[in-house]
Amino acid sequence: MDNPVATGFTTHQEFGERLRECIVRSHRCLQLFDPDFSVFPLGMMDADAALRQFLADGGTVQLAMHRSAIIERDYPRFMRLLREFSHRIACRATPPNLRQLTDSFCIGDAVNIVRRFHGDHMRGEAAFGSPPAAAISLERFDSIWLESRPCLPPTTIWAVVQQPGPPNFVAKKERGQGESSDVNNSLQMNFAESLKTSILTFSAYCEAPNLDIISG
C-alpha cells in the first residue's frame, strides 16, 4: 500500500495491540515518549518477548518521559531488559519546562507510529510503513530528547550523547571489562564535535537499515 491510512483506536486493549504491532514491524530503532508509561504494556510477557527479540536482532530503544517511578516500581521485566541490553537502551527524563507535554507515542524505524492524543486517554491512531505519518512525532521526539537528561541506569553506548557537559570519565567497557579513567584532554576539547557526530550518526542509523553503529 503506497499511502497507508492511519487507523484509530479507543481502548487500552487496542492501544496495546497496535504497540505490539509497531515493535514487531520495526527492526532498527524504537523511540517512545509518554509522561510515565503507566499504560504501556512494558511489564507484560508478550511485550517483553517482542522487545527482547527486537534488541537481540540489533535494534535500539530510546524512552523519554517525565517520571520514571512507575517503570522502576511496576515493570521488573523491562528493568531486567535494561540491565541485559544496557548498550541498546537509553532512557531520559524531561526538564521542568517540558512537563506540560501530554501526548504519547511510539515511533518505529521512522515509518511506524502509534500515537495517543493525550496521555490521560486511550483515543489515538496508528499507521505503519508511512514516513509522513511519523514525521511530526519524530521531529517532536528529537526535540524532547535533546533537552532531556539521562534517567534510570545510564548506558555506555549513549555516554557521549548523554553527558550534559564535557565528560570527565570513560565509561566502563561492556561485560565489566576495564575501569573508569580520566578522559584525555583532546576528548574534552572536542566534546562539542563528538556530541554532534553522535547525534547525526544515530539519526542516520534510524534511516539506513544497512548502517551498524553498535559495536561489540
Number of strands: 8
Mean pLDDT: 79
What percent of residues are in strands?
15-25%
Radius of gyration: 17 Å
Order of helices and strands: EHEHEHHEEEEHEHHH
Walk me through the structure:
The structure is a single chain. This protein has 216 residues and is of the alpha+beta class. The protein has a domain at 7-156: Endonuclease Chain A (Endonuclease, Chain A). 39% of the residues lie in helices and 17% in strands. It has helices at residues 12-25, 45-56, 69-74, 76-84, 131-147, 159-162, 185-189, 191-207; strands at residues 7-9, 29-34, 60-65, 89-93, 104-108, 112-116, 124-127, 149-150. The chain has an 8-stranded mixed sheet with strand order 1-7-6-5-2-3-4-8, sandwiched between helices. The longest helix has 17 residues, at 131-147. The protein is globular, with a radius of gyration of 17 Å. The relative contact order is 0.16. The model is unreliable at 155-192, 194-201 and 209-216 (pLDDT under 50).
